[in-house]
Design goal:
The chain has nine helices and 16 strands. Strand 7, helix 2 and strand 8 form a beta-alpha-beta unit. It is found in: Cytoplasm.
Length: 297
């Protein structure tokens, strides 16, 4: 029974991918990352970033609100320290890159091309950095960016979109038509949580990115809509807490499955979902996991 998938030219042993910014090195105390399809790095910028003020994550009644602010060591230390750590752990790594201008993204893409990285993810849908959603609000800017990055980088190019837009199918189509190989859906949603006793927002910057079980139906709809119309490679995720949730994304058209804040509830969840897929296709005599992708379309 085959659980392997292909995203653009990137071949993975199974569809399970840890989402960017939802884990750190401590995850290896709980799981063997080599057993997953891949992990996505925290979003890397040209220069180091300290991130947003603490606390930058709060638990809500139905999920989590985060304001990480792209905290990362910068591209230089990423290659000298972070990437070697994950490679030593046996992980297949997708590198998430972020910038505040076209030029930032292009420089990062050129570096990733020079280092022969197998896949990069353009984070153009982050809620908690300045102008983090600007590319989703300006189609011409999104087209311009993807075209430029495509010229700079030749391997698997993933564009991470949010579902809190007027037409996610249109943005996905624009991305694919201008050089993207894979669409990642979805990012977190803008949210606000307050302490009504102190009469203050719980996050210092007030607004954060909302994730958790409550967003699953919204994320699932986005994946279903995009796959139904475009039949493209999708990394789908949002609100996944167990194998059943992950299977739903596969049935709606996702090739890869992104595991995010559900890890805060159970750090072993990703490996459990890998096991769940193996058992599911064996019990149901499914020779290849891709045979059930998009079954409900």
């Amino acid at each position: 029974m085959n659980t392997s998938i292909k995203l653009g030219s990137l071949k993975l042993k199974n569809p399970i991918i840890l989402a960017s910014g939802t884990f750190d090195r401590n995850i290896i105390k709980h799981i063997e990352v080599k057993n997953l399809g891949a992990i996505t790095s925290k979003t890397i910028t040209l220069e180091p970033r300290t991130g947003n003020p603490l606390p930058n994550i709060v638990k809500t009644k139905y999920g989590f609100l985060n304001s990480n602010g792209w905290k990362n060591p910068g591209i230089e230390k990423y290659f000298s320290e972070e990437l070697p750590f994950w490679k030593d752990a046996g992980a297949e790594v997708i590198t998430s890159i972020g910038g505040f201008s076209d030029q930032d993204y292009i420089k990062l893409a050129k570096i990733c091309e020079k280092e022969s990285l197998p896949a990069i993810e353009l984070n153009v849908s982050c809620v908690n950095v300045h102008k983090g959603l600007s590319y989703l609000a300006d189609k011409k800017a999104l087209i311009r960016l993807i075209k430029k990055v495509r010229k700079a980088y030749t391997k698997t190019l993933i564009v991470k979109l949010g579902a809190n837009v007027t037409d996610v199918v249109d943005l996905a189509k624009i991305s694919l038509n201008n050089g993207a190989d894979v669409i990642s859906l979805t990012n977190t949603f803008p949210g606000l949580e307050i302490d009504n006793k102190k009469m203050v927002a719980k996050l210092p910057l007030k607004i954060g990115g909302y994730s958790g079980p409550a967003i699953k139906p919204i994320a699932l709809l986005a994946v279903w809509q995009v796959y139904k119309q475009l039949k493209c490679d999708i990394i789908g995720g949002g609100g996944i807490t167990d194998f059943s949730d992950a299977l739903d994304f596969t049935l709606c058209g996702a090739t890869g499955i992104s595991i995010g804040s559900g890890q805060y509830l159970d750090p072993k969840m990703a490996e459990k979902i890998v096991d769940g897929f193996r058992k599911y296709i064996t019990i149901n005599n499914i020779k290849n996991i891709n045979k059930i992708k998009g079954k409900i379309i």
